[in-house]
Design goal:
With about 350 residues, the protein is an alpha+beta fold. Helix content is about 45%, strand content about 20%. Strand 10 and strand 11 form a beta hairpin. Helix 1 runs parallel beside helix 7 and helix 12 crosses helix 14.
Length: about 350
C-alpha cells in the first residue's frame, strides 16, 4: 500500500468546509499527499462553472478547459458510473490504452500541458456528487491499483468537509432570503444549473399568471423575455466575479413589466459547492411604493432634486422619461444621476435600484 500521510489533507478539507477561501489549499494538500501534479474539484452532473476550486499548478489547464469548451466534452465523465459505485476511478475505467493514445481530449488538450493521467475521488455533498480529480503528468504515469484502493478509502473522509460547506451555504442562503423578505423584497435563489430552487413569500405572490416558475426556470409568457433572462443568468454565472446585472423586463398582460435583476454575491462565487450561486431580485413598479424622498435625503444626503430623481428611478422609470416628466434637460438629469451614484456608493443604475429597493 502507498505510504501516504493523509492527515494534514483531511484537516485542510475540514477547514475548507468552514472557509471556502481554503479550498485551493485543501486541494494542494491532497495533491501533495498523493504524489499528484495538481487537483481540481468538479461536479459529477451538469456543467461545471469557472469558480470550481483548483490548485495553482493546473490554472493554465483549467483556463483552456473552460475557454475552449473542453468542460462540455470532458471524456473523463465516462468514468462517472465507476466513480459513483466504487468511490474512485481512473482513465482506464473509461478508455483503453489505444484510445488514450489517440483521443483529442488527451492529445490536443492535456498533452500540450504535459498531463495525461487522472484519478477521481468521489466526494458526497448532500444530494450532489463531486470529485477531486487528481492530475498526473505523462512522466509520472497512471495511478496503481493499490493507490486506487487507498483513494477509495479516503473518499468518505473527504466528504465530511464538503458536507459542512454545503450545510453552511444553505444556512447563509436561507438567512439572505429571510432578510430580503423582511424588507418586502421579492427574491428567488438560483443554483449552478441556472434553476430556481427557492423563492421567498413576496416572490411567490408575484409569480402568478404571466410569470411563473416552470420546471425550475423563471418563465414568462413572452418567450423573448424568458430567453433574455436565461441569457443574463448564464452570463452572470459564468462571470468570474459577483455583481448585479441590468434588469430584464418581464411583460405582463396588465400593468407594467416585472423587473428581474440577476445578481451574484461575492461569497457565492467563492463557494462552488453552495446550492445558491445567484439570485434574481424582482421589482414590481406597479405595486411598490416609492421611497420617501425625505428618507433618501437623510440617509444619503441627497438634494431635493436628486431625491426626487432617485425615487422615480427606484420605481422603474427610465432616466429619459424622468427628465421629460420633470421638465429638465437630459444632461441635467445625467449630472444629478452622477451625483446620486457618488453619494450612494454605486456605479450603475441597476445597482442604484437594488440599493433603493431596500428602502421601498
Amino acid at each position: 500500500m502507498p505510504a501516504w500521510n493523509f492527515g494534514p489533507a483531511e484537516q485542510e478539507f475540514a477547514e475548507a468546509g468552514l472557509d471556502p477561501a481554503r479550498w485551493v489549499q485543501a486541494l494542494t494538500s491532497v495533491a501533495a499527499a498523493t504524489g499528484s501534479f495538481g487537483a481540481v474539484m468538479l461536479p459529477l452532473s451538469g456543467d461545471a462553472l469557472p469558480n470550481v476550486p483548483y490548485t495553482e499548478s493546473v490554472s493554465r489547464v483549467m483556463e483552456d478547459y473552460f475557454r475552449d469548451g473542453w468542460h462540455s466534452q470532458d471524456e473523463r465523465m465516462r468514468t462517472v458510473p465507476t466513480l459513483t459505485q466504487r468511490g474512485v476511478a481512473d482513465d482506464f475505467d473509461g478508455h483503453s490504452a489505444d484510445e488514450i493514445a489517440k483521443h483529442p481530449y488527451y492529445q490536443e488538450f492535456l498533452g500540450p500541458h504535459g498531463l495525461r493521467w487522472y484519478a477521481g475521488v468521489k466526494v458526497a455533498c448532500g444530494e450532489d456528487l463531486w470529485a477531486v480529480a487528481l492530475q498526473r503528468t505523462i512522466d509520472q504515469g497512471p495511478f496503481s491499483a493499490d493507490e486506487k484502493d487507498e483513494l477509495a478509502r479516503i473518499s468518505s473522509r473527504l466528504s465530511a468537509g464538503a458536507a459542512i460547506a454545503r450545510a453552511l451555504s444553505a444556512s447563509a442562503a436561507s438567512g439572505a432570503l429571510e432578510a430580503f423578505e423582511m424588507s418586502g423584497t421579492a427574491v428567488v435563489l438560483i443554483n449552478r444549473h441556472g434553476h430556481v430552487f427557492k423563492a421567498n413569500a413576496p416572490a411567490e405572490r408575484l409569480l402568478v399568471d404571466d410569470i411563473r416558475i416552470v420546471k425550475g426556470q423563471l418563465t414568462a409568457k413572452d418567450i423573448r423575455a424568458t430567453t433574455a433572462l436565461n441569457r443574463a443568468l448564464h452570463d452572470l454565472l459564468w462571470r468570474p466575479t459577483g455583481g448585479l446585472s441590468a434588469p430584464v423586463a418581464l411583460p405582463r398582460a396588465t400593468g407594467r413589466p416585472l423587473l428581474a435583476y440577476p445578481a451574484r454575491l461575492s461569497n457565492s462565487t467563492a463557494n462552488a459547492l453552495a446550492d445558491c450561486q445567484a439570485m434574481v431580485i424582482l421589482i414590481d413598479p406597479d405595486s411598490r411604493s416609492p421611497a420617501p424622498e425625505t428618507n433618501l435625503r437623510t440617509v444619503f444626503r441627497l438634494t431635493q432634486a436628486e431625491a426626487r430623481l432617485a425615487t422615480q428611478l427606484a420605481r422603474g422609470e427610465s432616466l429619459e422619461n424622468v427628465a421629460d416628466q420633470f421638465g429638465i434637460g437630459k444632461e441635467t438629469a445625467r449630472s444629478q444621476l452622477k451625483s446620486i451614484f457618488a453619494k450612494t456608493g454605486v456605479h450603475r443604475q441597476a445597482e442604484l435600484v437594488a440599493v433603493l429597493a431596500k428602502l421601498l
